[in-house]
Amino acid sequence: MATEVVRLSGKAKYIFVLQKSMFDDWRILLYPDAESLEKIKKLKSEGVKNHLKKDDDGYNMQFKRPVLKEIKGKMVTYEPPVVVDNEGNAWPPGVAIGSDSDVTIKLEVYEHGTPGGGKAKACRLQGIRVDNLVPYNKDVEWSPEQKELVEGLDTAPKPIW
């Protein structure tokens, strides 16, 4: 089973690479540039099952990396994806990546068996380069409804356990 490395570029949203998502994985939603969209279409034609979607902002695809995965009866633990800046330096701790940041992601594309005995391809997120950072701003990331729901939580006293 040969693996292939693919790099895709574009705008990112829903970026959970510095902390796990609520689904206990690392993930990123990529809005690919034109060249990367063609690469994605080629991957789809080769059997990659990730869903290519389109919304008001354009085509997008989600890429993930599990924390734990059972492979051939053994639990495999995966480290978080590597995150670097546009010069290849390690991402500074505590600096959040905001929506619409320009990124290049590195994927491992591999073939695997299916329950029916066939073959399929899958992509696993390996790393991310932040080419142009849009700083995370909690005041603009929330919808008005969400903002109202979380209002005051940042200043509420923390419990002592």
Explain how this protein is built.
The N and C termini lie far apart (49 Å). The protein has helices at residues 34-45, 138-141, 144-150, and strands spanning 3-16, 25-32, 53-55, 58-66, 68-71, 74-77, 82-84, 101-113, 119-132. The protein has three helices and nine strands, in the order ββαβββββββαα. The chain has a single domain (3-136), classed as Nucleic acid-binding proteins (OB fold (Dihydrolipoamide Acetyltransferase, E2P), Beta Barrel). It is mainly beta and 161 residues long. The model has no long low-confidence stretch (mean pLDDT 89). The protein is 14% helix and 45% strand. Strands 3-4-2-1-8-9-7 form a seven-stranded mixed sheet, covered by helices on one side. A two-stranded antiparallel ribbon has the order 5-6.
Quick summary:
The protein is mostly beta strands and 161 residues long. It has helices at residues 34-45, 138-141, 144-150, and strands at residues 3-16, 25-32, 53-55, 58-66, 68-71, 74-77, 82-84, 101-113, 119-132.
